[in-house]
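Review box. Two proteins, two foldings.
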Amino acid sequence: MTSTPTAGRQVSARRRPGARDKRKQVLDAAVQLFLANGFDQTSMDAIAAQAGVSKTTVYAHYSDKLALFRAVVERSGRALAVQMDESRLRGEQDPQVRLAEIVLIVLEATTSPEFQAFLRVMVTESGRHPDLAFAGESAGLVDVIGLIASTLEDEAERHGYELADARMFATVLLRMVASGPQLDSLLFPEFRPEHTLLDSYARWITAIFLRGIQPRTGDAREVAPPAGSYGYPWLPETGGRR
């Protein structure tokens, strides 16, 4: 019987979910093995075996192990981006409240066990594999910085002042937010901050940061970032690389 274009489309549609399932199996297996064994000790053969697929299937989706590692980090970044979109859609009109909500999402993401485990892998092995550190390009942080920057601009407009470089201030805030609880979680693996603690910390650090960048009476209306400030080394806009 002669196949019709419609039948061909139906067959194609039936195949696509299988390909997506295999890709998810590969990513899930890669997460487990990277976290258990580190980057060097995880082979593409082992990932294929763990995923229950052929090595050819793994390479059909990812050109090499670094590309697969980047994909794993990117998947985590997409989950964070979805949360950020949800916070934006809630329609909070007060920029300070909205900013505290963004900060809370970042805190919860960067203190999660999976994020901490991947951070340990990157810290341990980036000396031998510098490109691992640049996997952060895939983590969605550039989008987070943009969202924080636009919220800071809304807050500045609300109070009648200007920011010389909103993205730089956003980067500084992001570094401040993640460093404390993130380091505590790294040094003390049993430390698992509860939502209420992180929520209080998010509102507190947001209020302190906004108070610090607001000009005082008689000061210039434009607030400039400190001389020599820097962001994430792998962000091109702050002197890093792609």
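Next protein.
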Amino acid sequence: MARGKREMRRIENTASRQVTFSKRRNGLLKKAFELSVLCDAEVALIVFSSRGHLYEFATSSVQKTIDRYKMHMKEPGSTKRAAVESIQHWKSETARLANKIEVLEAHKRKLMGEGIEPCSTEELRELEAQLEKSLSNVRATKQKMLLDHISELKEQERMALRENAVLREKCKVEPLLQLTIPEGINTSDQASPNVEVETELIIGRPGTSDSR
């Protein structure tokens, strides 16, 4: 009877998870031992359980293998290999970008009407559609800019009209004040030179009524 394939996810049951860990751990340690014996390889294996228990295997010692790993990473050869790999990567990336730029330049020349002789009818139709779309976008952008400019000019005109109205209000001439003459005074008498004034001469102490 064929065994069912186990789904690769965390085992929720604690007891089942512990049993599976023990079996898989022993199998992993056995494989590490076989690899070291059969292939004369230096192997170091470190395993921590979910409870924090440490299990390890090493052909000599784990610390010695770790120190050897650190020394290997510091060797000039490893750094040189990393540099060579980086250079190769950037060379490949540069070539890819150069090819992309060349394709874009060729497409740009076609849009300008250059080098379109080898193009097929379908390619020319696509170029025409792209040009019409680009022209439509340019016209729409131009129209929007013109409308915005017109709106700005109208706003400036409204502001100028408001300022002119304020200035006209400030520059209005106030009416001259008129002189008010009390009633009963004849202005013609004041201006006449022929007005007679009666005078009386009184001689004596004050209070007497003798007059001459």
